[in-house]
Amino acid sequence: MRFKKPFPEIEFDHMRQSDLQIVADIERQSFSDPWSLSTLREAIGGKNPHSHFHVARLNQVPVAYVNYWLILDEAHIVNFAVSPAHRRKGLGKYLLAESLECIRDEGGRQVHLEVRRSNIPAQNLYCQLGFRLVHIRRRYYQDNDEDACVFHIGNLLEVDLEA
Ligand SMILES: CC(C)(COP(=O)(O)OP(=O)(O)OC[C@H]1O[C@@H](n2cnc3c(N)ncnc32)[C@H](O)[C@@H]1OP(=O)(O)O)[C@@H](O)C(=O)NCCC(=O)NCCS
Fold it and tell me: Which residues line ligand 1 (CB under 6 A)?
């Protein structure tokens, strides 16, 4: 493990079928437009060879997850959340930093993601990990017509993930 764990019982791993139900619960608690159980299942099912799904487990129970697609040297973070009961403990930053390290090891150099304009907690976290706001997509989210902020890392090799 390369990054300091926010607490020792945390385990960083690939998502398994047995994590699905709890991850779906966190998903519903975290988003106004949550992914369904079947969408989550597809993301780990191997149909999409570019999809990578990681979890952080606390005492074997998933408490945070991230899903990204990696195509050649470009990664797109497509889903990321921490269980409401475990927020503000450094878990989100830890999991995303570990995942960025995996992306780097797998040859990824650019990383991008979309985040709601109102989602200041996530934007603060992304800035801490070297992402920069590069673009606004107007009315990107269909459930409430909210704008998306596009955040980008241009060269992962230049980011100090342990800062
Ligand atoms: C965004 C989210 C993943 C952050 O996870 P977390 O584990 O609570 O974040 P961390 O404890 O690792 O915090 C890291 C940094 O993020 C920022 N941050 C996190 N929560 C914040 C909040 N409520 N308000 C302001 N900044 C916040 C801070 O800069 C924090 O650093 P600090 O503790 O030194 O101030 C979590 O709030 C979440 O799951 N939200 C709902 C789902 C979501 O928005 N996902 C992202 C979609 S793009």
Answer: 30, 80-82, 87-93, 115, 119-122, 124-125, 128
Answer whether residue 22 is part of any domain: yes
Q: Has residue 157 been placed in a domain?
A: no
Q: pTM of whole model > 0.90?
A: yes
Distance 39 CA to ligand 1 centre (A): 24
Number of domains in the chain: 1
> What range does the domain containing 106 cover?
10-111
Q: Is residue 3 part of a domain?
A: no
Angle separating helix axes 20-30 and 37-44, nearest 10 degrees: 120
98 is catalytic: no
How do residues 47-93 score in pLDDT, each as one tens digit?
899 999 999 999 999 999 999 999 999 999 999 999 999 999 999 99
